[in-house]
């Protein structure tokens, strides 16, 4: 079931900064950092699992399996990308129930046509507003607990303009979405307009290299946002680190001091090796005692 800590943080007016995680190493490291939530990014998860663009190619099963494992291996509330709900209204119901059963704390659903595209890339098209409102209604009706939050995202800014994006965001809040996500506003002024117009907790998407200005948590909160997700910081940092480390190895035939590596013993601790070793010692002692009898 959902971790109620995320809902409680929002109710208390605590700003939530959520780093993007996309597989277990990124999730388990971020889990130790004291964040109020982790954000399972669709872009990063599809890239790490399939090596493909975030273009509607991953299935519900692809995503749920990875999200469920991330939830299981971390203690921080998880916000998870669910694209368009992977189909029609029946698919939305199935997706909401599956994500909630997996222990996700907030599910993100968007108004793009299927198959969707990454929110900071071109050529996105959205479904009619009435169709998205039905998806929100189904999502709200399908959840088992109010602690499981529904995030409704509109991608209409890029193709239809900021006025339409705000109109949709207001309608999403009225339809029962717990959090409204207006994707890719293109200036701080547009972000301010979103916050002034929509009476609901708002989510800002801070994509490194994306269309929206990158603002601090303090500035986002002052504008009126409740959550700031940073979906790309993890996989872009990983990509840069791997490129540097592999280039160093290719050039020198060994890893030199130019490469910063995670301490191996601490990495073992992160993954739980000490528990494995203690288990092995315990049962090795029992086997020795049984052999001596």
TrEMBL record:
Keyword tRNA-binding among record annotations: no
Name of this protein: Isocitrate lyase/PEP mutase family protein
Matches recorded under Gene3D superfamilies: Phosphoenolpyruvate-binding domains
Annotated PANTHER family: CARBOXYVINYL-CARBOXYPHOSPHONATE PHOSPHORYLMUTASE, CHLOROPLASTIC (PTHR42905:SF5), PHOSPHOENOLPYRUVATE CARBOXYLASE (PTHR42905)
UniProt-listed Pfam families: PEP_mutase
UniProt keywords, alphabetically: Lyase
Molecular function as annotated in GO: oxo-acid-lyase activity
Lyase is among the record's keywords: yes
């Amino acid at each position: 079931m959902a971790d109620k800590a995320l809902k409680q943080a929002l109710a208390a007016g605590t700003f939530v900064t959520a780093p993007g995680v996309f597989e277990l190493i990124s999730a388990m490291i971020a889990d130790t950092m004291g964040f109020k939530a982790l954000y399972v990014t669709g872009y990063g998860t599809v890239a790490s699992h399939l090596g493909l663009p975030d273009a509607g190619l991953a299935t519900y099963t692809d995503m749920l399996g990875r999200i469920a494992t991330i939830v299981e291996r971390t203690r921080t509330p998880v916000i998870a990308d669910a694209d368009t709900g992977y189909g029609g209204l029946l698919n939305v119901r199935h997706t909401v129930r599956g994500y909630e059963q997996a222990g996700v704390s907030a599910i993100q659903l968007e108004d793009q046509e299927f198959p969707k595209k990454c929110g900071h890339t071109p050529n996105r098209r959205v479904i009619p507003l009435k169709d998205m409102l039905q998806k929100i209604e189904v999502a709200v009706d399908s959840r088992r607990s109010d602690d499981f939050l529904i995030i409704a995202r509109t991608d209409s800014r890029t193709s239809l303009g900021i006025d339409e994006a705000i109109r949709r965001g207001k309608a999403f809040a009225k339809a029962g979405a717990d959090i409204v996500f207006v994707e890719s506003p293109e200036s701080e002024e547009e972000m301010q307009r979103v916050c002034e117009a929509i009476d609901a907790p708002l989510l800002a998407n801070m994509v490194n290299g994306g269309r929206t200005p990158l603002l601090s948590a303090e500035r986002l909160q002052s504008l009126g946002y409740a959550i700031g997700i940073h979906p790309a910081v993890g996989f872009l940092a990983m990509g840069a680190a791997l490129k540097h480390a592999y280039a160093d190895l290719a050039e020198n035939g060994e890893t030199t001091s130019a490469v910063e590596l995670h301490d191996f013993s601490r990495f073992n601790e992160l993954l739980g090796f000490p528990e494995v070793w203690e288990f092995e010692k315990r049962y090795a002692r029992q086997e020795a005692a049984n052999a001596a009898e």
